[in-house]
Write a structure and sequence with these properties.
The chain is of the alpha/beta class. Helix content is 42%, strand content 17%. The chain is built from 15 helices and 18 strands. A 7-stranded mixed β-sheet has the order 10-13-14-9-8-15-16, sandwiched between helices. The protein has a 6-stranded mixed β-sheet with strand order 5-4-3-6-7-17, with helices on both faces. A 3-stranded antiparallel β-sheet has the order 1-2-18. Helix 5 links the parallel strand 3 and strand 4. The radius of gyration is 25 Å and the shape is globular. It starts with 5 loop residues before the first helix and ends with a helix. It binds nicotinamide-adenine-dinucleotide. Nicotinamide-adenine-dinucleotide binds next to helix 7 and helix 8.
Length: 458
């Protein structure tokens, strides 16, 4: 889209919001239903776009992009009326008689900027929150997953209210033009560098932001863990979508005495999933772009790959790779890997693991594998992360009653389930008083008796 037209797109969305149409329960439910129908009618088209962008295996694409969205839509439609209802809260004696309520107001026109790694779901999931809360929305899919971006731009207008829900395709110039406009909320998913650009632009209009970012999500494996199951779960989480998942295990800290045994189980798990030549299986994705393939190849250079390590730039393929003897200050340990490379580092017990984790940015997710609840509690209570799963990886993301988001460098704000509705809602505090009782105690002229009552009542 030409950047000259972007101001008009946002103005049109604002006109739609100002008309009041998006506020009703019926509009919200109708739009959520339309999204559901759109996904059901077009799952083949969606899967094809994801295959073209990322070589996503059908199973992974259906589970993480389509299935989760359909389930979340159903849950949102079921709960919507209850979420929208003004909530009665207590009223203290001093403001009696009266009643206090929390009204759930839409924010207005919101901007949703999505990344390329789950390029469909990370548009649809925030959008359903924005719609549920009664907002107009402008969506900017990632230009890097260009097939999915085009598919979204083609499909959405055929199903949803075109006045209130807009898609702007494009890259940095289009996003920059969008960011010059005034929005009532910006929901950004992506990396911390761009997040700073988003926040600076939002500050000009005092626009609140949700920043869903990434980082290095660690896994600590305690000697009490069931190693076979741990290895399968870690390998699944790391190599799904070829490691291009914001909450993928980034690196492993494993108790020294089980390091070698864990690597053997990991090798067995990877062989079992992908066979001897993972490049030939349909169950393994590809790296999204040549640039990212080159970045990952640089991270692999001069490392000790105990499993995998092969790369084929023409096919944007990198084998499921496990690194050993990794220096904690090597490049692969200094940036989010975001690819199928898994460094495994030995640690000397739980205190050393906690020191290692706390010496780095607060991660988006943290994983502990242990048969001992005290170990899990110690890790959780002495570290800070956006979320955590114990004895598995990534699955807390799929629990819609658990708000999903980061902390510190991994982001701010959260969504999923009711948290999505809340993110796109202003909770307006309202006290309602009757006319009939109007004690003069609060009005001038003040005197000692009034003051005494005031001290007693407050
Ligand atoms: P990306 O390159 O697709 O960028 C994300 C969005 O930012 C795109 O829509 C892009 O057009 C826009 N953008 C890029 N440069 C810009 C600029 N200079 N000015 C304005 N807008 C710009 O995706 P990415 O950032 O490479 O995504 C990967 C990152 O996202 C990883 O760090 C990952 O951990 C994180 N991520 C987080 C979550 C989460 O839910 N927390 C989910 C997925 C990905």
């Amino acid at each position: 889209m030409s950047t000259d037209l972007i101001g008009q797109v946002v103005a049109d969305a604002r006109r739609a919001f100002d008309s009041g149409g998006t506020r009703s329960y019926e509009w919200r439910l109708g739009q959520l239903r339309a999204l559901h129908t759109m996904i059901e009618d077009n799952s083949d088209v969606i899967l094809a776009a994801l295959k073209a962008d990322l070589g996503k295996p059908m199973f992974e694409a259906w589970a993480a992009e389509i299935g989760v969205a359909l389930r979340d839509l159903k849950e949102t439609m079921r709960a919507l009326k209850g979420w929208m209802k003004p909530e009665k809260v207590s009223t203290p004696l001093v403001t009696q008689p009266g009643s206090s309520r929390l009204y759930k107001d839409p924010l207005g026109v919101v901007l949703i900027i999505a990344p390329w790694n789950y390029p469909f779901n990370l548009v649809i999931t925030p959008l359903m929150g924005a719609i549920a809360a009664g907002n107009a929305a402008v969506i900017k899919p990632s230009e890097i997953s260009s097939n999915t971006s085009k598919m979204i731009a083609d499909l959405l207008p055929r199903y949803v209210d075109n006045d209130a829900i807009k898609v702007v395709e494009g890259a940095i110039p289009e996003t920059t033009a969008l960011l010059a406009e005034r929005f009532d909320h910006i929901f950004y998913t992506g990396n911390g560098h761009v997040a700073r650009i988003i926040m600076a632009a939002a500050a000009k209009h005092l626009t609140p932001v949700t920043l869903e970012l990434g980082g290095k999500s660690p896994v600590y494996i305690n000697k009490s863990a069931d190693l076979k199951t741990t290895a399968r779960r870690v390998a699944w989480g790391k190599f799904t979508n070829a490691g291009q998942t914001c909450i993928a295990p980034d690196y492993i800290l494993v108790d020294g005495e089980i390091h070698d045994a864990f690597l053997e189980h990991l090798r067995a798990a990877i062989d079992g999933f992908y066979g001897r030549n993972p490049q030939q299986t349909d169950s393994y994705a590809r790296i999204v772009s040549d640039r990212h393939h080159q970045r990952l190849s640089r991270l692999l250079a001069n490392q000790d790959a105990v499993i995998g390590g092969q790369a084929d730039p023409a096919d944007r393929y990198i084998a499921p790779t496990v690194l050993q003897n990794v220096a904690p200050d090597s490049p692969v340990m200094c940036e989010e890997i975001f690819g199928p490379i898994l460094p495994v580092l030995s640690v000397d017990g739980i205190d050393a693991a906690i020191r290692f984790i706390n010496g780095r940015d607060k991660p988006l997710a943290l994983y502990v594998f242990t048969g001992d609840d005290d170990v899990a509690e110690a890790i959780l209570s002495r570290t800070s992360s956006g979320g955590a799963t114990i004895n598995h990886v990534m699955l807390h993301y799929a629990v819609s009653s658990l708000p999903f988001g980061g902390v510190g460098e991994s982001g701010m704000g959260a969504y999923h389930g009711q948290a999505s509705f809340d993110t796109f809602t202003h909770t307006k505090s309202v006290l309602k008083k009757p006319f009939m009782v109007d004690p003069s105690i609060m009005y001038p002229p003040y005197n000692e008796t009034k003051e005494k009552w005031l001290r007693r009542l407050l």
